[in-house]
Amino acid sequence: MLDKEKVGREVFLIREESGIPLIGCIAFGLIDRGTNTIQVRPTSICPLNCIFCSTDAGPKSRMRQVEYIVELEYLVNEFRRLVKYKGEYGIEAHIDTVGDPLTYPQIVDLVQELRSTKGVEVISMQTHGYLLNEHLIEELEAAGLDRINLSIDALDPELAKFLSGTPSYNVERVKAMAEYIAKNTKIDLLIAPVWVPTINDTEIPKIIEFALSIGAGKRWPALGIQKYIPHRKGRKPKNVKPMTWKEFYQKLAEWEDVYRTTLILSLERDFGLHRRKMLPIKFKKDEKVELEVVGPGWLKGELLARGRNRSVTIVGIPKSLPYGTRVLARIIGNKHNIYIARLSP
Ligand code: SF4
Predict the structure, then answer these.
(1) Could you report the per-residue pLDDT of 198-230, keeping only the tens digit for each?
(2) CB–CB of 313/304 below 8 Å?
(3) pLDDT, tens digit, for every residue of 181-199?
(4) Ligand 1, atom nearest to 130 Cα
(5) What is the CATH number of domain 288-343?
(6) CATH assignment of 4-271, given 3.30.70.1060, 3.40.50.150, 3.40.50.80, 3.20.20.70?
(7) From ligand 1's centre to the CA of 330, what distance in Å?
């Protein structure tokens, strides 16, 4: 999967020696949103090109200029430091990424290391399942993975292919893997289709029936239907008008009655999410700061920089600058310690 041809672009490896902080960039590392869930992002790579992808992932991406991979030891060490800071109890390590976590070459080792971290109660992973096979599922189970949030967006093979933007995507194979997980392992399965109005409306009830028929959702809900939301830098299927939240929840409530299963999820009730101490925010919005350029930016026209032990994405760059260059920039985004800046004139 690290073959440049397959990935679509260069892969930038983030090692401890690089001194690139793992907090601060949305595309790799760790995200702490002030709850007991820590998002773990070891890779940004994806093998698919879903037509609705909010992060414009995959080989056919138009916005990305580089993919990131984080060295296992560095990621685990920083994760453990973060767990210690937040409190070593009831932590959920959620491996989600802006691509697909299964592209991480050491995904099994990562799960194992997270499992052996004091305070980690749940390890979950978000995937479209394209790279799953029985052996890998068994390895993930043995390593201690608790839940897979598996996105299946259509059961109709041609429509599923179309939605994935990938001619080799085979939904029958992904369904077989879903069934294998639900029936043969201790890993719980949550099926998480993205509902793209007018494109897969009639598929959603079929996906609900499929999830229930294979025994998904033993400890957590069987389904997590996701509303399609167009993102400025994501891919948008033509002629699709997003639903309102009201329309979305009304339909879910109707299906809840029909299928007698939970579809309107509460992160607190269904996943045990609760507030927890958050890492300190190191840069204020509008603050003018000095940063050091340390790598290529994730998307075109961006640079990766660091300062105050945080990574910062500098946007609106006309041309790349050598690594090590010190620049003045103004912080334009700092939510949840994810930093965006613009060069200061
Ligand atoms: S939606 Fe997920 S699987 Fe599909 S292209 Fe985007 S990141 Fe990859």
Answers:
(1) 999 999 999 999 999 999 999 999 999 999 999
(2) yes
(3) 999 999 999 999 999 999 9
(4) 3
(5) 2.40.50.140
(6) 3.20.20.70
(7) 31
